[in-house]
């Protein structure tokens, strides 16, 4: 019986080796079609620019490196790229993330971000009615790439199921509802709130720092990597955070059980709203309550009078998404150009190799233009 199992394993290993050896000799080309052609992504129509190509050729198994560990699929990428292990991809990095400065966290976002609140900016000739943080450009080497160029560069190096997942996520994303967590002292709660935001299509989350003299209690594997796909902004004070959010057009809704609180079921969530949840022990701070536009609460039907803070955040976001879907037909409300930019952002966040691929694309673009 053991010999049969041994033979079966040998056959499987031989098959895998044959497949990998065959793949390693393939030549991958990412061409930009002519201006008369269009590439279609679900929910997006991508216009192309001048034609040139990127070529990848692998002559040995050593240069064919896996870059899609998280989906248990294999992709071939350029020689010299970093290899991300399953342990790296599963590690909850929320603790590491929140120990960084505001500028460090901002640098994790790849596309250029808007300066200020965006008032008066236009979107296809129309005034932008709600906040969207990104410009249609990304710094690559000594030049800038547009979102379409980022997509053209990185697309050949991402497996189709992963690309489909990106497109579905982007089509259901919105900045019209954002989450603010104020002074949470447990990484587990922060991570769980991030995971709920990502799952519900809420792209923007804000963290107002807790007392720096107290350390967060570590709780790994709760966020499941959700923080990688969110736009996270760190703030030193609640007043600073609220001031910027109001400039961006958000109504501030704090969770509070006071007599003036309205039920979450009576709130119109189609209005751009920032949902604020407070510290596990003390709840929302007095300053946050005074600066907010409304206080809301989840009706309680049992003997206890509150939810765990991460559960409350999840319930509030879920109801906001359901209410928006009921009123508007869907939660995701990004314009076509915004979906294209956010998709490019996701492509660049995919793994460490994506930025390198974009940089090489930029170098080839500059080299081609210098010959003209």
Automatic annotation (TrEMBL):
Q: Cross-referenced SUPFAM superfamilies, in alphabetical order?
A: alpha/beta knot (SSF75217)
Q: What InterPro entries does the record point to? A: Alpha/beta_knot_MTases, SpoU_MeTrfase, TrmH, tRNA_m1G_MTases_N
Q: Which GO terms describe its biological process?
A: methylation; tRNA processing
Origin, by domain of life?
A: Eukaryota
- Name used for this protein in its record: tRNA/rRNA methyltransferase SpoU type domain-containing protein
To which species is this protein native?
Answer: Salvia divinorum (Maria pastora)
Specify the tRNA/rRNA methyltransferase SpoU type domain's residue ranges: 177-318
Specify whether ATP-binding is a keyword of the entry. Answer: no
Q: HAMAP family this protein is in?
A: tRNA_methyltr_TrmH
The lineage is: Eukaryota, Viridiplantae, Streptophyta, Embryophyta, Tracheophyta
> Which terms in the Gene Ontology molecular function aspect does this entry carry?
methyltransferase activity; tRNA binding
Mind listing the UniProt keywords for this protein, alphabetically?
A: Methyltransferase, RNA-binding, S-adenosyl-L-methionine, Transferase, tRNA processing, tRNA-binding
Q: Which Pfam families match?
A: SpoU_methylase
For whether the record's keyword set contains S-adenosyl-L-methionine, the answer is: yes
């Amino acid at each position: 019986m053991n010999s049969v199992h041994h033979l079966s394993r040998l056959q499987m290993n031989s098959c895998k080796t044959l497949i990998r050896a065959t793949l390693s000799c393939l030549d991958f080309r990412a061409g930009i079609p002519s201006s008369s052609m269009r590439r279609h992504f679900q929910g997006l129509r991508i216009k192309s620019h001048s034609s040139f190509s990127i070529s990848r050729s692998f002559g040995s198994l050593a240069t064919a490196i896996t870059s899609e560990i998280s989906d248990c699929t294999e992709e071939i990428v350029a020689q010299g790229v970093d290899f991300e292990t399953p342990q790296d991809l599963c590690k909850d990095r929320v603790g590491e993330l929140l120990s960084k400065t505001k500028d460090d966290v901002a640098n994790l976002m790849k596309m250029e971000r808007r300066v200020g609140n965006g008032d008066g900016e236009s979107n296809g000739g129309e005034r932008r009615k709600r906040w969207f943080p990104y410009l249609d450009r990304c710094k690559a080497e000594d030049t800038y790439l547009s979102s379409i160029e980022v997509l053209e560069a990185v697309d050949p190096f991402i497996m189709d199921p992963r690309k489909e997942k990106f497109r579905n996520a982007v089509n259901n994303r919105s900045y019209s509802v954002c989450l603010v967590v104020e002074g949470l002292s447990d990484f587990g709660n922060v991570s769980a709130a991030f995971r709920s935001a990502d799952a519900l299509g809420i792209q923007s989350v804000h963290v107002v720092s807790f007392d720096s003299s107290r350390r967060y209690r570590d709780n790994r594997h709760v966020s499941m990597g959700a923080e990688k796909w969110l736009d996270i902004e760190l703030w030193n004070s609640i007043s600073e955070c609220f001031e910027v959010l109001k400039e961006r057009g958000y109504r501030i809704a704090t969770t509070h059980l006071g007599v003036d609180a309205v039920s979450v079921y009576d709130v119109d969530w189609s209005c751009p709203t920032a949902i604020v949840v407070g510290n596990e022990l003390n709840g929302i701070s007095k300053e946050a309550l005074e600066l907010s536009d409304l206080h809301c609460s989840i009706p309680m039907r049992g003997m206890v009078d509150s939810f765990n803070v991460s559960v409350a955040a999840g319930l509030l976001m879920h109801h906001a998404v359901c209410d928006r879907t009921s009123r508007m037909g869907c939660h995701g409300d990004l314009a076509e150009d915004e979906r294209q930019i956010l998709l490019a952002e996701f492509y660049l966040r995919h793994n460490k190799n994506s930025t390198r691929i974009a940089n090489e694309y930029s170098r080839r673009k500059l080299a081609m233009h210098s010959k003209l």
